Amino acid sequence: MTNPDLGDDRPNGSDVREAAREKAKSIRRQQRKKETRRHLLIRGGIVGAILVALAVVAVVLLFTSHSARPGPLNMLSDGIQIGRGMKAIPTAALEADAAPVPSAWDAKSNVIDIQVYVDYANVYAQKFMSANSAQLQSFLSKGAATVEIHPISILDSNSQGTQYSTRSANAAACVANYVPDRYWAASNELFAEQPKERAPGLTDDQLVAAMQKAGVSEDSVASCIRDQRFKSWVKAATLRALAGPIPNSNVTKIAGTPTVIVNGLKYKGAPADAAAFGAFIVQAAGAAFNESTTSTPTPTPTPTATTPPKKRKN
C-alpha cells in the first residue's frame, strides 16, 4: 500500500512510452546527421578527386603544348652545320617530337667533318673555342672542313636559378632560326661574354645586346630570346645528346662539354691546346682517308697553333 503523503516517484506507462519515443527520435536525428556528413564527405572527396584530375590534365596539356613545339630552322640534326665562308648549311626545322636527322657525311670526302657539343656556360667549352676558333675559321674559309655546333644545357643548376645554360642555348637557336649565317659570330660572342662559374649569367636583355654585338640586330631574334621560344627544344636536344647514341661517330653519348668529334673520332686532348687539336685533325682525317683504298685525298690545310683571344671582362 502506497503512502499518499510521500507520493509515488515511479513513472507511469505513458511517461515511459513518451521517453522512449523521444530517445528514438534523438537517435534517428543523430543517425541522419552522420549520414548527411558521410554523404558530404563522399561528395567532397569525389569533387576533390575530379579537381585533382583536372589539374593533372591541365599540367599535362600545358607541358605537352610547350614540349611539342618544332625546333629552330637549320638545326634538323639538333646542331647547325657551318660550311665554306662561315655560311650555315640550311635545313628544315625538326618537327615536334620527331627524331633529329643526322647531317650527311661521306667518310671518303676531302672535307673534314667536325662536330662540337657545347654548353655556353661551360668554362672548358669556352677555352676550347677561344684556343681553336681561329684555326677552325681558317679551315672553314677555305672549305676544308664543316663545323657542326650543338648547343646543349647541362649546367642550369650552376646559375643561381636563372637557367643560363638553357637561355644562352635558346639565344643561339634563335640566331640559327632567323640569321643562320651569323651563327659563328654569335656563338663566339656568347663565349666571349661567358659569366663566371656559378654566377647568374646574362639576362635576356643582355643576351639580346650580346647578339647585337655579333651583328644580329633583327627584332625577330630579340623577341625569340625574350620569349625563350626554343627552350623546350633545348631541353629535348640536351636529353637526346645525353642519352645517345651520337651519329657518325664512335661516341656513345655526351657526358660533358666540350665534346669534339672529328671525322667520327672523339678528341681526347686538352681543350685549350690548339697544337694538339690541330694534330688530331690531321690524324683523324688521315684515319678516315686510309679506310678507303680507292680514295685519293687532296692535302688538307696544315693546322697551326693560334693565340687564344682574351676573354672579355663582364
- Which class do the helix and strand fractions yield? alpha+beta
Form type? elongated
- CATH architecture field of the largest domain: 3-Layer(aba) Sandwich
Overall mean pLDDT stands at: 84
Describe the structure.
- With 314 residues, the chain is an alpha+beta fold.
- The chain has two domains: 13-67; 80-290, Glutaredoxin, CATH 3.40.30.10.
- The chain is built from eight helices and five strands, in the order H-E-E-H-E-H-H-H-H-H-E-E-H.
- The protein has helices spanning 13-67, 123-141, 164-178, 183-192, 204-213, 219-227, 231-243, 274-290, and strands at residues 80-82, 112-118, 145-151, 259-262, 265-266.
- Strands 1-3-2-4-5 form a five-stranded mixed β-sheet, with helices on both faces.
- Strand 4 and strand 5 form a beta hairpin.
- The chain is elongated.
- The chain starts with 12 loop residues before the first helix and ends in a 24-residue tail after the last helix.
- Residues 1-7, 52-66, 291-302 and 304-309 have low confidence and may be disordered.
